[in-house]
């Protein structure tokens, strides 16, 4: 847990610099893929040292998940843009949207996803017969998240 927390703190300090250098899309997807590869390696090695080393990737993922969506929401609100037209160009919003409402929706979705996963993990571990399933599912779902992140509107952030 100490390595996880340390990596989360360190990555949180540099994430804005990474966004300026590489762009939000690459940082978002890269953070999720970094976690995916770390969890895959942890599942394959099944060793104490591997757990310590690869737990660093969990901190990167946590920082990514609890930073990037909120940065994107803030950027959408500062631009007044919440969608793109068929050509892929930003379309100015005409409706009144509250920043607090959007932040609450994103926060609710994150915690709802964690809740649903928590309900399912006991059955998955029981079905597979090993706790390595937890790490494998985390890796798979992180990969799915990275694929989904390719469809997010980044508005040149």
From TrEMBL:
Keywords: Membrane, Transmembrane, Transmembrane helix, Transport. One of its GO terms (molecular function) is sucrose:proton symporter activity. It is a multi-pass membrane protein. It comes from the Eukaryota. GO terms for cellular component: membrane. The keyword Transmembrane helix applies. It is found in: Membrane. The chain crosses the membrane at residues 27-45, 51-73, 103-127, 133-155. This is Uncharacterized protein. It comes from Lutzomyia longipalpis.
């Amino acid at each position: 847990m100490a390595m996880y927390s340390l990596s989360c703190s360190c990555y949180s300090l540099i994430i804005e610099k990474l966004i300026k250098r590489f762009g939000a899309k690459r940082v978002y997807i890269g953070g999720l893929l970094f976690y995916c590869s770390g969890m895959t390696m942890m599942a394959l090695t099944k060793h104490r040292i591997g757990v310590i080393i690869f737990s660093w990737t969990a901190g990167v993922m946590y920082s990514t998940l609890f930073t990037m969506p909120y940065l994107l929401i803030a950027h959408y609100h500062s631009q007044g843009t919440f969608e793109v037209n068929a050509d892929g160009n930003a379309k100015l919003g005409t409706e009144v949207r509250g920043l607090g409402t959007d932040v609450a929706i994103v926060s609710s979705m994150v915690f709802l996803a964690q809740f649903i996963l928590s309900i399912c993990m006991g059955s998955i571990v029981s079905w597979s017969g090993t706790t390595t399933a937890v790490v494998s599912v985390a890796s798979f779902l992180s990969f799915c998240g990275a694929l989904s992140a390719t469809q997010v509107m980044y508005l040149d952030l």
